[in-house]
Amino acid sequence: MKIKVLDPLIASKIAAGEVIERPSSVIKELVENSIDANSKTIEIEIINGGMDLIKITDDGNGISKEDLPLAIERHATSKITNIDDLTRLTSMGFRGEALASIAAVSQMELSSKSPQSIAGSNIQVENSMILNENPISMVNGTSIMVSNLFYNLPARKKFMSTQKSESNRIVRLINHFCVTHPEIKFKLLIDEKQKINTHGDGELIHTIAKILNQNLASELISVSNYDGDFKISGYISPPHISRTNRSNILYSVNKRIVKDKLITMALEQAYRGFLTIGKFPITVLNLNTSPSKVDINVHPRKDEVRFMNENEVFSFIQRSVRETLIQKHPVPNTFNAVHNTAYPLTSSGTKSNFREESIYNNRIETREQTSFNFNTNNENTLFTNNNFPILRAIGQIDNTYIIAEGEDGMYILDQHACHEKINYEKIIQSIGSNMLDMQLLMEPYLIDISSLKTRFLMNKLDSLNTNGISIDLLDDQTIMLKGVPATIINTKLNDFIKDIETFIESELDINDALGTMNTIAASIACHSSIRAGDTIDLKEMNLLLRDLENCNEPFHCPHGRPTIQNISINQLNHMFIRPN
What we know:
Heat Shock Protein 90, eight-stranded mixed beta sheet, 22 strands
């Protein structure tokens, strides 16, 4: 077939498809324009999930009568004049494509008035063509009405989600705008019903309370850190508050809403050990940096960024959030869960809680550490154990929990979680220092993997082979596991091998070397530790407590479960109706 130049109308519709995917795309572009116009109030109204009507009204700077027709022209913008402006950009928009793309796939009416104008101007647009242009009476600002979205693209319209799904997307987007710009008053109407209405007083915590939950907002932890190149600020959830998906991980870069795997990964790494697998934090954070250090011209939708130094960004975010969590997170307190509970007294006979042989014997033994060079951003530098109480073991319950007393009353510890955390930190300290002994398997274990993961493993073989795991590559889709850490208990060997196989097959992250080793270390620690049901004597319990005191972060096991709970003397007195 001969090559032909596309008709401008067809070309505009194709180009619009990159920017305008769905109703929420329209709203994102228009709200960003309102923000750039220094608006103090932005009102959004939608009908039928935004497919029938989207209306955005603001009180911003407005557009002059002369510039209004230019606003719908492709690549017409007031934000930049030359290529160097991209390295100094502080505005949300800059491509000059938003209004042109919307005009190509909808019926649009645009009204605006600048402070310098006596009257406002109104234009009606269809298929990128101006049908009418009239003066109107209006206050300063801009109002854009988008009707019948994708009316001229039936294929695109057919693939839209349900009205409820599209409306939910819009609610999430406006919520994100609200917490990114708490200084702006946002109002959202869905099918004539008010869904969002913020104060716009500039107080982020007030906005969070308004759109999320007052009780939730009172539990959040403030984050603020600055290192010269980067500044991070906002709020994060404590470990006892989490979600089952990432929908509440909200962040922005220079007040721009983005989706960035690097930032998401850094936040999840910061919570490693605080949250169980499958749980995710709530975050409302903004990262500020020089525009010259971040490229926002990655995608037409302007929702992706690329950092000049990704390692610095990752380390800064992870360190800032993790240090905040450690400083603010006290020993868990169980009083609220138990103080109203009545416990019947029962007798089931006498059962010995002790046996002669030692179960807890500090199973992970490592040679003297001379260096730690696997990763300079390792988590050991981030922890503090200053808040961990000095405890004395007094017994064991159900061969699972250690009962101890300390300065603030009674403490209950999960013996497996405690030992697991002790072993985990020792393994992490040994990674990269060739200090874990290895035992060869009687029969090598074959694992089938993809060629992509094979290429990654080739770069990591030295690191694995010097840390107690022996792996050979048989071909581009098969590896042979020949050895495992000697600390693995024989009865748990099969479980550990299954962990390694599952990890390699499904969880391997090519860009997350530290996460790779942390996951392996957690598995080694789990299968090297005492279990629920193991009887240990008082000497062993107290030895475990002393080792736990020396941990950098003693409050959670590597999988995020708590190691310790506390009931204070005052709470015990209250439970037994005794005066304090």
